[in-house]
Amino acid sequence: MKITVLRLGHRFIRDKRISTHIGLVARALGADKLILDAPDDDVKRSVWKVVENWGGEFEICFTDDWKGYIKDFGGERIHLTMYGININEVLDDIKASKKDKLIIIGGEKVPPGVYSLVDRNIAIGNQPHSEVAALAVFLDRLFEGKELNKKFEGKKMIVPKSRGKKVLNER
Amino acid sequence: MKITVLRLGHRFIRDKRISTHIGLVARALGADKLILDAPDDDVKRSVWKVVENWGGEFEICFTDDWKGYIKDFGGERIHLTMYGININEVLDDIKASKKDKLIIIGGEKVPPGVYSLVDRNIAIGNQPHSEVAALAVFLDRLFEGKELNKKFEGKKMIVPKSRGKKVLNER
User: Among all residues of chain B, which has the CA nearest to that of A125?
Assistant: First the structure.
């Protein structure tokens, strides 16, 4: 099962760090690819630097036709929105399908057309919070936490410690 | 069990949106209070506006002595850091304790002293990603997903829908 994350409504400057966090969360929690709806090379560079240093097969790219991308996606299209159905009610259904998934995250100003283009509108709770958090909780639930045990083969690797920091470099 | 989130290393301008997301995630996923180590009124105002509209008992305040705050906290002090022990290995232990919890999140430049001031250094995976995501996954794991069913009594309330948006206002 491949997971692609589509980040809509990216605004340059204002959203650079949020979109970068989205990319890093996608990579660290088991997604395969991030697509932004605006060609922000700074975000691409920041995420790419992490991939280069810490490993993994993560891809990041841009689209100027997000509607077409959603329509043509060959798998399940899931929009994370606080207006949707609480994930607690539908998680078992979502996990039952092994289809590839497109996870769409917008933010405050998501274009209204999105709701009807997707297969599911899912809420990580029906309260306003954060698209970064929504993506993280969704992936953690989907993979039942096992994504946090995934090994990445990178130049850098952390040796987990109960105190302090230990990083192996240039292995 | 009360949950307080301590956000260290908040930098004005650069971190406004990230710290706001942290506050909103803390509130929406079952924490009771956010403390920032810098008196940023914009962040306070943004989080407070959500509390005012959407309800709940969430508090937000500042400290100029985060070391003292950690030392004096009467409960379990848990630092979320990618250098720590993977949460998958210690979640059962953490859940077994019903003590109040102080969740400390820093970011890239967390002061080195933090690691030895706390009871546990816990990694939401040992890969770089996002303090917003780390907090969200931690709370979702701690409360076993039940936090997303919590009812907030606010002026606004979402009626979950599989398509589109429905919000009740000024109930």
Answer: B148
